[in-house]
Amino acid sequence: MKNEIRELVGKGEMLPLMEAFYTIQGEGYHKGTAAYFIRVGGCDVGCHWCDVKESWDPDLHPPTKVKEIVNTAQKYSDTIVVTGGEPLMWDMEPLTRSLKDFGLNVHIETSGAYPLTGIWDWICLSPKKLKPVTPKVYSKANELKMIIHNKHDLIYAEEQALKVNASCKLYLQPEWSKRDLMIPHIVDYVMKNPKWKVSLQTHKYLNIP
User: Fold this and answer.
1) 3-state secondary structure of 160
2) C-alpha separations of 41 from 59, 62, 95, 124, 190 in Å
3) Has domain 3-205 been given CATH number 3.20.20.70?
4) Pick from 85, 9, 27: which is nearest to 53 by CA?
5) pTM (2 d.p.)
6) What is the pLDDT of residue 1?
């Protein structure tokens, strides 16, 4: 990567863009909503069950000008979801400010492992055991989405729920490869602890990208 481009990426004026696409949000509070997804490359959290491991290495994805990303995004939807990878590895201020200039609703899906940057209408926090969450993300999260791979993850979910703000929506979502095993446990848990709701990857059931 040339020094000039590296500097622009460092400032958040260019981002390693893995893909961008218009689809239906399949998970959490906004499931069923048409949205334009911006998937940013780069993640060092290292979840072994991650279904987008190709996003981990930012050098595999072309540095793309924020202006170019935004000009395309605003043509598709008034709801934009920034995801990864881990988007907070990069400064999200330039991207989100440009999206807000078009009056768009801007959401993020993050592990919270990096400091919060950017202007967000909705923050979906999905903590991972491998990296601690930065305190500011806990306080700002609108939605806590816990991925449940085994029964011990329910204990971890409760630990994380104690750290978010009182208005944060709480979701338990089965890890896709363990869904048949974990859904009965999650359903039983939510019925006993109704502060939680069940989240499913409905886009996968519907064969939506």
Assistant:
1) helix
2) 8, 9, 14, 18, 34
3) yes
4) 85
5) 0.94
6) 60
